Amino acid sequence: MIEWTAAIRDMIAARLEWIAARVAAPAPIQSPSERVADLEVDEPGEARFLEDRARVRRLLRLALFDGPHHRAQADGVNTSRAAFALALSSAVLVGTTGLLPGCGSSGPGSSFGPGNGQGGGGDAGTGGGDDGPSLLQDGGSGGADGGGGDACSPNLTGRLRDFVNKPGFTPSSALDDDFENALGDDRGIVATDLGPTGKPVYAHPGGMTPTTHGQTQFDWWYRDTPGKNIPYDFQITLTPIGGGVSSYDNQEFFPLDGRGWNDEYVADDGKMHNFSFTFELHTTFEYMGGETFTFIGDDDVFVFIDKKLVVDLGGVHVAETKAIQLDALTTDDAAQTPVPLTKGTTYPLDIFYNERHTVASHFRMDTSIVFNNCNPIILPQ
C-alpha cells in the first residue's frame, strides 16, 4: 500500500508541474500528430511524470492479471484490492483515458512493424486524448502499436513448422539432416542482430557449424517452405505462478502429434511422438523496469529483445537454462554488449525454438514481462 501511495503521489505532483508549465507557456496550436511527435521529456516535470506513470502502470497490471483476488507482489509490497481502487480513483484525477495502453498486432514484414491502427489508445495514436500524457495511456485513437484502447489478454500465437529426417521416409526430398543428426552445444549459429524480415541470420554463410549444414537448410527453419516443412499456428498461454511471474511449462512439448509429416519416435515418456519441428513466436511488451525472463528447454533457443540476441542456447542438447534481467540486459555473445531499455517504451520480443532430436522435448518459459499484443504476429516468410 505504501508503494501505491508513493507512486501515485509522485505521479500527481509531476502532472501538476507539467500543467503549470503549460499554463505559463502555452504551446502553439498543433495537429494531433504534431502533438504526439512533440511529446518529449524536455518540459519541466514531464520526465518524472513518465517514469512515475510507468511505475503505476506496472502495479496496475500486476493487480489485474496476477491471481483471482487481484493481489500481486510488486517491488516487495503486497498490493490489495483497496490499493487498486486507490490507483483507479487517482487515475481519474490525473485524466486517465484508459486502463491499459492500447495493444494490437504488428504489421507484416517485420517483427515489430506498424500496427493495424484500429481501436483507441495506441502510444502513437492521433486524436482522442488530452494535450499531455495521462497515467496509463498517451492520448490517441489507434496507434503504431496496433491499437485497442481496452485492456486485452496478450495473444501468444506463434508458428510451428514440422520437419522430417527419418530413414526410409518418403518422399526423400523432404529429408533435412539438420534434424535427428549431430549432438552437442552449438553457440553462435545465429548473428547477434535479428534480420530485417524478423528472422535470425545464419552467422556462417558459405560454411557450417557442428550441428547445422549450411545457409540453405537453416533458412528453412523459420520460413514456410513447401516440400520441406509443414506450418501450423500454435498458441501458448501463460499461467501466474506468484511473485508477479507467469509461466508456460510443458515437459512433453509435442504440439504436432498426429499432424505434419508425423514421423514418430518413442519419447522419454514411453509414447510415440512427432519430433523434428521449430517454433517461432513474436510478441511485444512495454518495459516497466525490473522484469525477468528465464527459459529452460531443448534443443536450440534463440531470444531477441529489441532485435538483439539476448539468449543463445544453440545446439542439440538436453534441457538447458538461461535467465536474464532486463534492467541489466546484454547480448548473449562474446562481446556482451549492453542492450539499454527505456521505461515506458514498447519493444519486440522474438523467440525461436527448435526440437531437433529424440528422445525428449522440454519447453518452459518463466517471466514477469507483461506482453501487450492483442493479436498474433505471424511472419510466414
Shape: globular
Overall tally of domains: 2
Please state roughly what percent of the residues sit in beta strands, choosing from under 5%, 5-15%, 15-25%, 25-35%, 35-45% or over 45%. 15-25%
User: Oligomer, anyone?
Assistant: single chain
Q: Give, in spatial order, the strands making up the sheet with the most strands.
A: 5-3-10-16-12-13
User: Could you list the spans in which at least 5 consecutive residues all have pLDDT below 50?
Assistant: 29-44, 65-89, 91-149
Main β-sheet description = 6 strands, antiparallel
Average the pLDDT over all residues and give the rounded result. Answer: 77
Straight-line distance between termini: 48 Å
- The helix content is 10-25%
| Secondary structure: number of strands | 17
| SSE pattern, N- to C-terminal | HHHEEHEEHEEEEEEEEEEEEE
Query: Helix count?
Result: 5
Structural class: alpha+beta
The radius of gyration over CA amounts to 23 Å
